[in-house]
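Rotation project, supervised by the postdoc (A.L.). Task for the rotation student: set up a whole-complex structure prediction and record inputs and outputs verbatim in this book. Inputs entered:
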Amino acid sequence: MYKLYSMQRSGNSYKVRLALALLGAPYQAIEVDILRGESRTPEFLAKNPSGQVPLLEIAEGRYLAESNAILWYLAVGTSLAPESRMDRAEALQWMFFEQHALEPNIGAAYFWLSLVRGGRELQTHALEDWMERGYAALQVMENHLKTHEFFAAGQLTVADIALYGYTHVADQCDFDLAAFPSIGSWLRRVEQMPGFVSMDWCPDLEVTPSASIAADA
Amino acid sequence: MYKLYSMQRSGNSYKVRLALALLGAPYQAIEVDILRGESRTPEFLAKNPSGQVPLLEIAEGRYLAESNAILWYLAVGTSLAPESRMDRAEALQWMFFEQHALEPNIGAAYFWLSLVRGGRELQTHALEDWMERGYAALQVMENHLKTHEFFAAGQLTVADIALYGYTHVADQCDFDLAAFPSIGSWLRRVEQMPGFVSMDWCPDLEVTPSASIAADA
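Outputs recorded:
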């Protein structure tokens, strides 16, 4: 069984949890609170020298970092990985776009405005740039989604999961998605996929039917 | 034949030229000077809505953007693409690392200090962050290269090409590589590969053997 080092409210970590859920793959989740420095301990740095989550332990002592590389690994042989050479390249194109145009801007705004107390005041100088570049990235996505249901291969792939991670929390960090109706429709399409789980969903909190009934009682 | 929209002094563009050279693949290069806004014209934006180079025209009207996605596309079926699932994932891991830890810092420093006149003064406030994060990325690479000849699969792959792009110009933008001897050795290993071309090499300047002899005479 996979072991996933993840932070519940990290969009990058959520991408991997979402892929595992859509694939129905069992895993053990280990919460790593980067705000408390838990990804910077000697023990964690021995597993991932970059000191970041998510981190997937694939086999005893064999670790894979980088959310989008993990997505690609998990998707091998499933419908989440496009089949043709060109479709695969286009999925990767959007995943690299996500890591340099979306995540450093919307991801950074989300982190500082939504997760760090007093973050807005600390990052006043950077926020304007994040907003400008984040909106530019959203516009590129909106233009694509005007004529496509998904980002690559005409179906839900790892590219959609990668982009969903931070796009779906953009409205929690000052971005107004009202001007991006095609993005809104795409977010709903992803959310309707069988097996979809929200960012709040935590594998450790999963309740069995009987426990659920007990809780309702 | 491929058509490559590229800027000669862009590290991201160079990655693709280097891969094409190592693979011995013929292509037509079209210089796009982003400093003169040539990637922001309506004509270019119609080809790549992100307004960036490199951009590869794979077939008439079919374009692929994002340097690392292009590398992956070109490498299919060649020794530059690792074969096993884990090796492929590890190559991708390093390529995503390159796009969020190396390129935004060393690439940004290179752009503003080396390509833009007066760039140092314009970016004084950002340079300190770029240096700190760029050195952190170099340290992660150095630690890996202490015990590995290449980044993935024990051989030269697209991951090395991606990381070479900006690492080899780090010393042109204030980074001192003297403290990273394993990176130095790895740079030399890449440069000794058959077919290697430098960033300065321009396909349009290629001389035929007879022309070369004529030039020597």
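Student's summary: The beta strands of chain A are 2-6, 27-31, 55-59, 62-65.
Supervisor addendum: The first helix of chain A runs from residue 11 to 23.
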